[in-house]
Amino acid sequence: AQSVTQLDSQVPVFEEAPVELRCNYSSSVSVYLFWYVQYPNQGLQLLLKYLSGSTLVESINGFEAEFNKSQTSFHLRKPSVHISDTAEYFCAVSVNNQGGKLIFGQGTELSVKP
Amino acid sequence: KAGVTQTPRYLIKTRGQQVTLSCSPISGHRSVSWYQQTPGQGLQFLFEYFSETQRNKGNFPGRFSGRQFSNSRSEMNVSTLELGDSALYLCASRPGPSDTGELFFGEGSRLTVL
User: Which of A31, A47, A93, A102 to mutate to test the interface with B (most CBs of B within 10 A)?
Assistant: First the structure.
């Protein structure tokens, strides 16, 4: 069975500092990997995804994640965070042909302080 | 293009009652998934529908059921409500079952069971 572990439940950082949100997964088959963001009282929005190809994927707002198959990780990074990045971030995996069924990690609450 | 629409946004029920939640997917999307989000259990997959057929089901009791209509709109029903059913219920849509890209989430229906 697949599972996702987000190693940090809360990450406080100061504005303009770099941040890394860690995600490890376990699966015996190939997976697709996603990072979703949830702002207060809203649904989830896709931040970025890895399906195949280049192991480094980037979002339009400066986040990036690197798929590391040997370490079964998909950590999310941003070199300089903004107050507006404050939100909860979820790592998720899906197995081939089950794209509607995502296995989510427990979430990491990113709090950016001025 | 309108996003995923869920109704109602908030509702309060008492133990033993039943509830029906509605989801209208993005126009042209034919696959609808449902998730339950709670502070303790996080995000858990309930079920996915495509062409009025349930394609995948999570590990929830039979009190949780769903259906999809010919226009792709979906409903989920929870019977004999328990206190532990209090949660944010999220609906997500995608174009079709073979699409491996993102899920588009609604803002959710927040259910409180008293």
Answer: A102
Tell me the pLDDT tens digit for each residue of A29-72: 778 899 999 998 889 999 999 888 888 888 888 999 999 988 89
Contacting A with CB below 8 Å, chain B residues are: 4, 31-33, 35, 42-45, 48, 50, 55-56, 58, 90, 92, 94, 97-108
Residues of chain B with pLDDT under 70: 1, 101
* Residue A97 confidence (pLDDT): 63
> Per DSSP, what are the bridge partners of residue A16?
none
Angle subtended at Cα B57 by Cα A76 and Cα A27, rounded to the nearest 5 degrees: 40
- Among candidate residues B104, B83, B94, B92, the one with its CA nearest the CA of residue B33: B92
How far is the C-alpha of B106 from the C-alpha of B4, rounded, in Å? 5
Distance of CA A8 to the CA centre of its chain: 12
Closest CA to A1 of A96, A106, A95: A95
Set of chain A residues whose Cβ sits within 8 Å of the Cβ of B92: 43-44, 100
Q: Which residues fall within 8 angstroms of residue B40, CB to CB, at 6 or more apart?
A: none
